[in-house]
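Quick one before lunch.
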Amino acid sequence: MVTPTHTTTFKPFFIGDIEISVPIALAPMAGHTNRAFRKLVREIGDCGLVCTEVLSSNTLNNKGTRQKSLEKFPWDSVEEYPMAVQLFGNNPQTVAEAAKIVVDNGAMIVDINMGCWVPKIANKGSGAALLRDVSTARAVVEAVVQAVDVPVTVKVRSGFEDGIVTAIPFAKAAEECGVKAIAVHARFAGQGHQGYVDWEVIRDVKAIVNEMPVIGNGDIITPEDAEEMLTRTGCDGVMVGRGALGRPWIFKQMAHYLRTGEHLPEPPRSEKAAIALRYAELNLQYSSIPDYPTVLQMRKQLGKYNLDEEGSLAIRNQLVRVESITDIETLLKPIIASGV
Ligand SMILES: Cc1cc2nc3c(=O)[nH]c(=O)nc-3n(C[C@H](O)[C@H](O)[C@H](O)COP(=O)(O)O)c2cc1C
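Model of the flavin mononucleotide complex:
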């Protein structure tokens, strides 16, 4: 039921001919948003768009490493629909070739990473470093748009150097080249993931483009944050990263709030524990590596599920030390069985 005073901010949008029926996307996060986590988010529902972790265009172009990369970062375009596969690289032809490879492997949207600030990527001129120069960034997206017949999107920061906002002229150039959506993490590269998120950049990007949807990103944690960003910047959708870790039900809560102005309750502890267990099972199902290292990789997210009674960290402290699915079940099953 929509509350009588609530003006809904819930509006689907399109990326090319793909309908994004819920205007809330899961942000790509290396080491977190693997196929298991994306599947979990899809099972819970109300996420409009998911995206793979970032894949290296160079690695995909190299026949010796291609298969391993595709196996390490798997996706299922039917089960995860709609989804984007994200690439990084700085050479237009290399990124375009990589785009063809991922499309041949089922990618329905290709996203170009222009947001990554970590030295291993940015020092080589890829990721956010592409935003140092609009014409280089444009050449990359132009080559990709020409190479594939699926929608191409870009994820940018405000700019590379502090205070120099290249997202705005780049957004215009990208739309002219045929890019079908842009996600804006409104921080500069040097800020990493901390500090002020400047929503004005998102608003200005939205104001400069014609039809191309703009997705706002940065510190969206609560349903109110999502609604406020949509309202204040005019963006078409919001993208949630860290706010979804250990809380994959956040999309449902946000979508409900945007639709109705009302809050869904936080899931009870037993339900959260069941979701955490499902996360662990999906990871073991989809992992391309043995169970033990897979479990070690899960620890950082399992520890975020907030399953402890008020004032305690006992469950959390054990979840970040688990070594097997049996350890995980031993901790979670009693909470699930409690039903509260
Ligand atoms: C651990 C981690 C890994 C990330 N990996 C990627 C990535 O692979 N590609 C990308 O475009 N952004 C990546 N990001 C940035 C996020 O997509 C997002 O822009 C950023 O976290 C801000 O959104 P948030 O405040 O909702 O988390 C990553 C962020 C984090 C915290």
